[in-house]
Amino acid sequence: MATTAAVAVPGARLPAAAGFRPPLTERIVARLPGPRLALLVGWGLLPFAAYELAYAVQPWPSYMGMPSNLMFGLVNLLGLWGVARLAGRVEQLQPTLARLIPPGQAEGGPLPFRHVANVWGPLAISAAITLTWDLLDFLMYPSPATALLVGVIFVGQLGITTFLWTYGSVLFGLDRLGRRPLQLEPFETDPHLGLKNLGSLAFEAFLLAGAMVAPMFIASAGDARGVAGALIVLIAVGALFFLSAMSLHGTLARAKAAHVQWARGLVGVALEPVNALADPIDPGAARSALDAATSRLAAAVELERRAQAIQDWPFDAAILRTVVAILTSATAAIAARLLLSQFGV
User: How far apart are CA 327 and CA 33, in angstroms?
Assistant: First the structure.
Protein backbone atom coordinates (compact mmCIF):
# COMPACT_ATOMS: atom_id res chain seq x y z
CA MET A 1 0.00 0.00 0.00
CA ALA A 2 1.49 3.31 -1.05
CA THR A 3 2.39 5.60 1.82
CA THR A 4 0.38 8.75 2.29
CA ALA A 5 3.14 10.68 3.98
CA ALA A 6 4.06 14.02 2.47
CA VAL A 7 7.59 14.95 1.53
CA ALA A 8 8.40 18.34 3.05
CA VAL A 9 11.62 20.32 2.69
CA PRO A 10 13.05 20.96 6.19
CA GLY A 11 12.25 24.52 7.30
CA ALA A 12 9.81 25.02 4.44
CA ARG A 13 6.93 27.43 5.09
CA LEU A 14 3.45 27.46 3.72
CA PRO A 15 2.88 29.77 0.75
CA ALA A 16 2.18 33.42 1.53
CA ALA A 17 -1.50 32.96 0.71
CA ALA A 18 -1.65 30.37 3.49
CA GLY A 19 0.62 32.30 5.89
CA PHE A 20 -0.30 32.84 9.53
CA ARG A 21 -1.12 36.31 10.85
CA PRO A 22 -1.12 36.95 14.61
CA PRO A 23 -4.33 37.77 16.52
CA LEU A 24 -5.49 41.33 17.17
CA THR A 25 -3.88 41.91 20.57
CA GLU A 26 -0.53 40.53 19.44
CA ARG A 27 -0.46 42.93 16.50
CA ILE A 28 -1.38 45.87 18.74
CA VAL A 29 1.26 45.05 21.38
CA ALA A 30 3.90 44.62 18.66
CA ARG A 31 3.26 48.18 17.45
CA LEU A 32 3.24 49.87 20.85
CA PRO A 33 6.45 51.36 22.25
CA GLY A 34 7.88 50.02 25.48
CA PRO A 35 8.76 46.68 27.08
CA ARG A 36 6.38 43.90 26.10
CA LEU A 37 5.89 42.65 29.66
CA ALA A 38 4.98 46.11 30.94
CA LEU A 39 2.50 46.56 28.07
CA LEU A 40 0.82 43.22 28.78
CA VAL A 41 0.54 43.86 32.52
CA GLY A 42 -0.74 47.41 32.00
CA TRP A 43 -3.33 46.35 29.44
CA GLY A 44 -4.32 43.28 31.41
CA LEU A 45 -5.00 45.22 34.62
CA LEU A 46 -6.62 48.21 32.86
CA PRO A 47 -10.21 47.02 33.61
CA PHE A 48 -9.38 46.62 37.30
CA ALA A 49 -7.84 50.10 37.51
CA ALA A 50 -10.72 51.64 35.54
CA TYR A 51 -13.42 50.15 37.77
CA GLU A 52 -11.65 51.12 40.97
CA LEU A 53 -10.94 54.68 39.82
CA ALA A 54 -14.48 55.18 38.55
CA TYR A 55 -15.98 53.88 41.81
CA ALA A 56 -13.70 56.13 43.85
CA VAL A 57 -14.88 59.14 41.83
CA GLN A 58 -18.58 58.29 41.85
CA PRO A 59 -19.91 55.05 43.43
CA TRP A 60 -22.79 53.10 41.87
CA PRO A 61 -24.90 50.24 43.35
CA SER A 62 -23.88 47.45 40.95
CA TYR A 63 -20.16 47.81 41.74
CA MET A 64 -18.78 44.26 42.09
CA GLY A 65 -16.06 44.99 44.65
CA MET A 66 -12.28 45.14 44.51
CA PRO A 67 -11.62 41.36 44.70
CA SER A 68 -13.94 40.66 41.75
CA ASN A 69 -12.49 43.50 39.72
CA LEU A 70 -8.94 42.36 40.46
CA MET A 71 -9.88 38.84 39.34
CA PHE A 72 -11.32 40.35 36.15
CA GLY A 73 -8.03 42.11 35.50
CA LEU A 74 -6.02 38.94 36.12
CA VAL A 75 -8.26 36.97 33.73
CA ASN A 76 -7.72 39.69 31.13
CA LEU A 77 -3.95 39.45 31.66
CA LEU A 78 -4.15 35.67 31.35
CA GLY A 79 -6.10 36.15 28.13
CA LEU A 80 -3.36 38.32 26.64
CA TRP A 81 -0.76 35.70 27.55
CA GLY A 82 -2.98 32.89 26.28
CA VAL A 83 -3.41 34.60 22.92
CA ALA A 84 0.36 34.85 22.55
CA ARG A 85 0.75 31.22 23.58
CA LEU A 86 -1.81 29.90 21.09
CA ALA A 87 -0.45 32.11 18.31
CA GLY A 88 3.04 30.75 18.97
CA ARG A 89 1.79 27.15 18.90
CA VAL A 90 0.03 27.70 15.57
CA GLU A 91 3.22 29.23 14.17
CA GLN A 92 5.17 26.16 15.32
CA LEU A 93 2.69 23.94 13.47
CA GLN A 94 3.77 25.29 10.09
CA PRO A 95 6.07 22.33 9.29
CA THR A 96 3.32 19.91 10.35
CA LEU A 97 0.77 21.69 8.16
CA ALA A 98 3.22 21.70 5.27
CA ARG A 99 3.41 17.90 5.54
CA LEU A 100 -0.29 17.30 6.08
CA ILE A 101 -1.83 19.61 3.47
CA PRO A 102 -1.35 18.23 -0.05
CA PRO A 103 0.49 20.45 -2.57
CA GLY A 104 -1.93 22.70 -4.41
CA GLN A 105 -4.45 22.78 -1.55
CA ALA A 106 -2.49 25.22 0.61
CA GLU A 107 -2.98 28.00 -1.90
CA GLY A 108 -6.62 27.18 -2.59
CA GLY A 109 -7.61 27.08 1.07
CA PRO A 110 -9.52 27.41 3.09
CA LEU A 111 -6.57 28.05 5.39
CA PRO A 112 -7.39 26.22 8.64
CA PHE A 113 -6.39 29.04 11.02
CA ARG A 114 -7.02 32.08 8.84
CA HIS A 115 -9.77 33.48 11.12
CA VAL A 116 -7.33 33.90 14.03
CA ALA A 117 -6.26 37.25 12.58
CA ASN A 118 -9.81 38.56 12.22
CA VAL A 119 -10.30 41.97 13.86
CA TRP A 120 -14.08 42.15 13.96
CA GLY A 121 -14.59 38.94 15.92
CA PRO A 122 -12.86 40.08 19.15
CA LEU A 123 -14.41 43.55 18.80
CA ALA A 124 -17.91 42.07 18.41
CA ILE A 125 -17.48 39.88 21.51
CA SER A 126 -16.18 42.87 23.46
CA ALA A 127 -19.13 44.96 22.30
CA ALA A 128 -21.60 42.26 23.40
CA ILE A 129 -20.03 42.03 26.87
CA THR A 130 -19.88 45.81 27.22
CA LEU A 131 -23.55 46.13 26.25
CA THR A 132 -24.53 43.48 28.78
CA TRP A 133 -22.64 44.98 31.71
CA ASP A 134 -21.15 48.45 31.39
CA LEU A 135 -23.65 50.09 29.06
CA LEU A 136 -26.50 48.66 31.12
CA ASP A 137 -24.90 50.05 34.29
CA PHE A 138 -24.59 53.44 32.63
CA LEU A 139 -28.26 53.43 31.59
CA MET A 140 -29.33 52.43 35.10
CA TYR A 141 -26.90 54.72 36.94
CA PRO A 142 -25.88 57.47 34.49
CA SER A 143 -22.79 59.43 35.49
CA PRO A 144 -19.53 60.57 33.89
CA ALA A 145 -17.76 57.66 35.61
CA THR A 146 -20.04 54.92 34.25
CA ALA A 147 -20.07 56.62 30.84
CA LEU A 148 -16.27 56.58 30.70
CA LEU A 149 -16.20 52.91 31.68
CA VAL A 150 -18.13 51.91 28.55
CA GLY A 151 -15.28 52.92 26.26
CA VAL A 152 -12.42 51.97 28.57
CA ILE A 153 -13.72 48.48 29.31
CA PHE A 154 -14.53 47.87 25.64
CA VAL A 155 -10.85 48.32 24.83
CA GLY A 156 -9.46 47.04 28.13
CA GLN A 157 -11.09 43.61 28.00
CA LEU A 158 -9.79 42.79 24.52
CA GLY A 159 -7.38 40.36 26.18
CA ILE A 160 -10.33 38.18 27.16
CA THR A 161 -12.32 38.60 23.96
CA THR A 162 -9.34 38.09 21.64
CA PHE A 163 -8.49 34.90 23.50
CA LEU A 164 -12.06 33.62 23.16
CA TRP A 165 -11.99 34.42 19.44
CA THR A 166 -8.55 32.86 18.99
CA TYR A 167 -9.61 29.73 20.87
CA GLY A 168 -12.66 29.34 18.67
CA SER A 169 -10.69 30.00 15.49
CA VAL A 170 -7.99 27.47 16.40
CA LEU A 171 -10.47 24.74 17.35
CA PHE A 172 -12.60 25.38 14.24
CA GLY A 173 -9.37 25.26 12.23
CA LEU A 174 -8.55 21.84 13.66
CA ASP A 175 -12.07 20.72 12.79
CA ARG A 176 -11.58 21.91 9.20
CA LEU A 177 -8.27 20.05 8.99
CA GLY A 178 -9.98 16.85 10.09
CA ARG A 179 -12.58 17.20 7.33
CA ARG A 180 -10.18 17.64 4.43
CA PRO A 181 -7.90 15.15 2.64
CA LEU A 182 -4.57 14.99 4.45
CA GLN A 183 -1.21 13.42 3.70
CA LEU A 184 -0.81 11.36 6.85
CA GLU A 185 2.44 9.99 8.22
CA PRO A 186 3.20 6.26 7.70
CA PHE A 187 1.43 4.13 10.29
CA GLU A 188 4.46 1.83 10.53
CA THR A 189 6.41 4.55 12.38
CA ASP A 190 3.74 6.86 13.85
CA PRO A 191 0.57 5.44 15.45
CA HIS A 192 -0.94 8.96 15.49
CA LEU A 193 -0.26 9.40 11.74
CA GLY A 194 1.28 12.84 12.30
CA LEU A 195 -1.79 14.28 14.08
CA LYS A 196 -0.55 14.22 17.67
CA ASN A 197 0.71 17.81 17.49
CA LEU A 198 -2.80 18.89 16.47
CA GLY A 199 -4.33 17.02 19.39
CA SER A 200 -1.76 18.57 21.72
CA LEU A 201 -2.72 22.04 20.48
CA ALA A 202 -6.43 21.35 21.11
CA PHE A 203 -5.77 20.13 24.65
CA GLU A 204 -3.49 23.04 25.53
CA ALA A 205 -6.07 25.49 24.20
CA PHE A 206 -8.72 23.79 26.34
CA LEU A 207 -6.55 24.04 29.46
CA LEU A 208 -5.90 27.74 28.84
CA ALA A 209 -9.61 28.37 28.37
CA GLY A 210 -10.41 26.41 31.53
CA ALA A 211 -7.83 28.43 33.47
CA MET A 212 -9.73 31.57 32.42
CA VAL A 213 -13.24 30.28 33.11
CA ALA A 214 -12.48 29.33 36.72
CA PRO A 215 -11.53 32.87 37.89
CA MET A 216 -14.31 34.31 35.73
CA PHE A 217 -16.76 32.23 37.75
CA ILE A 218 -15.16 33.28 41.05
CA ALA A 219 -15.17 36.95 40.06
CA SER A 220 -18.85 36.92 39.14
CA ALA A 221 -20.13 34.51 41.81
CA GLY A 222 -22.42 37.18 43.25
CA ASP A 223 -23.90 38.25 39.92
CA ALA A 224 -26.33 36.05 37.99
CA ARG A 225 -25.25 37.61 34.68
CA GLY A 226 -21.63 36.75 35.35
CA VAL A 227 -22.37 33.18 36.44
CA ALA A 228 -24.56 32.61 33.38
CA GLY A 229 -21.84 34.08 31.18
CA ALA A 230 -19.22 31.76 32.69
CA LEU A 231 -21.52 28.77 32.11
CA ILE A 232 -22.08 29.75 28.46
CA VAL A 233 -18.34 30.17 27.91
CA LEU A 234 -17.62 26.80 29.55
CA ILE A 235 -20.19 25.00 27.38
CA ALA A 236 -18.81 26.66 24.25
CA VAL A 237 -15.23 25.79 25.22
CA GLY A 238 -16.13 22.14 25.75
CA ALA A 239 -18.21 21.91 22.59
CA LEU A 240 -15.43 23.35 20.44
CA PHE A 241 -12.87 20.99 21.95
CA PHE A 242 -15.00 17.93 21.21
CA LEU A 243 -15.86 19.23 17.74
CA SER A 244 -12.18 19.37 16.79
CA ALA A 245 -11.36 16.11 18.60
CA MET A 246 -14.18 14.22 16.85
CA SER A 247 -13.09 15.54 13.47
CA LEU A 248 -9.51 14.36 13.95
CA HIS A 249 -10.83 11.12 15.44
CA GLY A 250 -12.78 10.54 12.23
CA THR A 251 -9.62 11.01 10.17
CA LEU A 252 -7.73 8.48 12.30
CA ALA A 253 -10.63 5.98 12.28
CA ARG A 254 -10.96 6.07 8.49
CA ALA A 255 -7.20 5.71 8.00
CA LYS A 256 -7.03 2.87 10.51
CA ALA A 257 -9.83 0.94 8.78
CA ALA A 258 -8.13 1.36 5.39
CA HIS A 259 -4.71 0.29 6.69
CA VAL A 260 -6.09 -2.74 8.54
CA GLN A 261 -7.97 -3.88 5.43
CA TRP A 262 -4.84 -3.49 3.32
CA ALA A 263 -2.69 -5.40 5.82
CA ARG A 264 -5.21 -8.23 6.00
CA GLY A 265 -5.08 -8.40 2.24
CA LEU A 266 -1.34 -8.94 2.50
CA VAL A 267 -1.92 -11.77 4.97
CA GLY A 268 -4.23 -13.40 2.42
CA VAL A 269 -1.63 -13.02 -0.31
CA ALA A 270 1.04 -14.52 1.93
CA LEU A 271 -1.17 -17.54 2.58
CA GLU A 272 -2.00 -18.17 -1.10
CA PRO A 273 0.61 -20.96 -1.51
CA VAL A 274 -0.89 -22.78 1.47
CA ASN A 275 -4.50 -22.24 0.37
CA ALA A 276 -3.60 -23.58 -3.08
CA LEU A 277 -2.61 -27.03 -1.75
CA ALA A 278 -4.68 -29.84 -3.20
CA ASP A 279 -6.68 -32.24 -1.06
CA PRO A 280 -5.42 -34.71 0.11
CA ILE A 281 -2.40 -32.69 1.17
CA ASP A 282 1.01 -33.88 0.05
CA PRO A 283 3.36 -33.46 3.08
CA GLY A 284 6.28 -32.47 0.94
CA ALA A 285 4.29 -29.88 -0.95
CA ALA A 286 2.85 -28.61 2.31
CA ARG A 287 6.30 -28.07 3.80
CA SER A 288 7.44 -26.25 0.69
CA ALA A 289 4.34 -24.04 0.70
CA LEU A 290 4.72 -23.24 4.41
CA ASP A 291 8.41 -22.45 3.99
CA ALA A 292 7.59 -20.11 1.11
CA ALA A 293 4.83 -18.37 3.09
CA THR A 294 6.59 -18.02 6.45
CA SER A 295 8.66 -14.88 5.88
CA ARG A 296 5.95 -13.11 3.90
CA LEU A 297 3.31 -14.07 6.45
CA ALA A 298 5.41 -12.77 9.36
CA ALA A 299 5.84 -9.41 7.62
CA ALA A 300 2.13 -9.18 6.78
CA VAL A 301 1.08 -10.08 10.34
CA GLU A 302 3.44 -7.43 11.75
CA LEU A 303 1.96 -4.82 9.41
CA GLU A 304 -1.53 -5.79 10.53
CA ARG A 305 -0.47 -5.47 14.17
CA ARG A 306 0.87 -1.98 13.57
CA ALA A 307 -2.23 -1.00 11.63
CA GLN A 308 -4.38 -2.18 14.55
CA ALA A 309 -2.18 -0.05 16.86
CA ILE A 310 -3.16 3.20 15.09
CA GLN A 311 -4.58 5.44 17.80
CA ASP A 312 -8.26 6.39 17.86
CA TRP A 313 -7.60 9.93 19.12
CA PRO A 314 -4.86 12.48 18.35
CA PHE A 315 -3.82 12.40 22.02
CA ASP A 316 -3.56 9.91 24.87
CA ALA A 317 -6.83 8.41 26.12
CA ALA A 318 -6.18 9.83 29.61
CA ILE A 319 -6.50 13.34 28.18
CA LEU A 320 -10.05 12.65 27.02
CA ARG A 321 -11.01 11.43 30.49
CA THR A 322 -9.42 14.52 32.04
CA VAL A 323 -11.41 16.85 29.78
CA VAL A 324 -14.68 15.08 30.57
CA ALA A 325 -13.96 15.23 34.32
CA ILE A 326 -13.12 18.95 34.19
CA LEU A 327 -16.19 19.83 32.15
CA THR A 328 -18.55 17.75 34.29
CA SER A 329 -17.38 19.12 37.64
CA ALA A 330 -17.09 22.73 36.46
CA THR A 331 -20.50 22.71 34.77
CA ALA A 332 -22.13 21.24 37.89
CA ALA A 333 -20.52 23.87 40.14
CA ILE A 334 -21.50 26.80 37.92
CA ALA A 335 -25.03 25.50 37.37
CA ALA A 336 -25.47 25.03 41.13
CA ARG A 337 -24.23 28.56 41.79
CA LEU A 338 -26.63 29.93 39.18
CA LEU A 339 -29.54 28.01 40.68
CA LEU A 340 -28.73 29.14 44.22
CA SER A 341 -28.48 32.77 43.10
CA GLN A 342 -32.11 32.60 42.02
CA PHE A 343 -33.01 31.97 45.68
CA GLY A 344 -30.80 34.73 46.97
CA VAL A 345 -28.17 32.36 48.36
Answer: 40
Helix or strand (DSSP H, E) at 56: helix 46-57
307 in Cβ contact with 260 (< 8 Å): yes
Q: Which of 8-22, 71-85, 97-111, 199-213 bottoms out in mean pLDDT, i.e. has the lowest? A: 8-22
Q: How far apart are CA 104 and CA 90, in angstroms?
A: 21
* CA count, 13 A, side-chain hemisphere, 8: 22
CA angle 276, 282, 283 (to 5 degrees): 110
pLDDT > 70 in the chain, percent: 82
Q: Global pTM?
A: 0.84
What is the model's pLDDT at position 338? 65
Who contacts 163 (Cβ-Cβ below 8 Å, separation ≥6)?
78, 79, 80, 82, 83, 86, 208, 209, 212
Q: Give the C-alpha separation, 194 to 316, whole Å.
A: 14
CA 180/CA 250 separation, integer angstroms: 11
